[in-house]
Amino acid sequence: MSFYEKLKFDANGLIPAIVQEHRTGRVVMMAWMNRASLEQTITTGKTHFWSRSRQKFWMKGEESGHTQTVKDIAFDCDGDTLLIQVEQHGPACHEGYHSCFFRSVEADGAGSRETEPRLLKPEEIYKKK
Length: 129
Description:
Strand content: 25-35%
Strand order of the largest sheet: 2-1-6-5
Largest sheet: 4 strands, mixed
Helix content: 10-25%
Shape: globular
CATH class of the domain at 3-92: Alpha Beta
CATH architecture of the domain at 3-92: Roll
Number of helices: 2
Number of strands: 8
Structural class: mainly beta
CATH superfamily of the domain at 3-92: Phosphoribosyl-AMP cyclohydrolase
CATH topology of the domain at 3-92: Ubiquitin-like (UB roll)
């Protein structure tokens, strides 16, 4: 049995992929994959995803140059979530932060705060590499 048969893709053929920096354990992003993007990730060693908003296949860093080199791919006990450990090259976030999870909720729940510095301004990210 192929490991693909153990995965539970949703009704749209997608599965959530949590992307974690292998060296630090820091979660840097979450994105969606379909079977084709997962196959391409395994084949190339670079992360590929499916954009629900743009309805298109994309490789992380294809425009910014901030790619992710895959170190390990795991799936949870239910087979409905992927955990991809990567070596992150540059910011993972399209807003210029190392991680997409750069905001934390205040203890009282009234607001949020930024928890890491911005590495690049958004307009600097998408200059062709």
